[in-house]
Amino acid sequence: MTNLTRRHFVAAGAATMLAACGNGVNQNGGSTIDARVASTLSFMYDTYPGTRDLGQKAAGVLVMPLVTELGLGLGGSYGRGALQINGSTVDYYSAASGSAGLQIGAQQYSHVLFFMTQNALADFRASMGWAAGADLEYVAADQGDVLRAETITSLSPVIAVVFAQTGLRIGATLEGTKYTRIIP
Description:
Strand content: 35-45%
Number of domains: 1
Distance between the termini: 39 Å
Number of strands: 6
Structural class: alpha+beta
Helix content: 25-40%
Number of helices: 5
Mean pLDDT: 79
């Protein structure tokens, strides 16, 4: 017989809450994700006009319309999105991460990864599971309106924009997030 500890209870509760979040995909998987991606890009470009330049200069854009993150000692996040090249969806991806430590709360947010070089895009697409690392360049959402692609493309092959945060957790980081190709 197994002894259930508080840690097991918290982990089971966090997993249940994360599974219950509204970012799952039904039988219309691809079309549902595509509609969410289009809406997310439209919102981002309208709200942060400087990101439009990034989108035009990027070799590819990974759009995660809704990522749900929960934490109570143990935490995790999950979302689904699409990789677009020249404005067309070429693949679907999930983003997942796990964490442990002093944390409590829940939040939802959107994020977009701009692959600024063909090599960065090729590395991402060739990997079995690409993990965002510390070398990922972040653009704060409130700086998006003054962002210029020319100044950043030479510095970082992958640029992340995190926006539309709601919830009771402070901040969102993509470090340690694993992206995996899926079939919706």
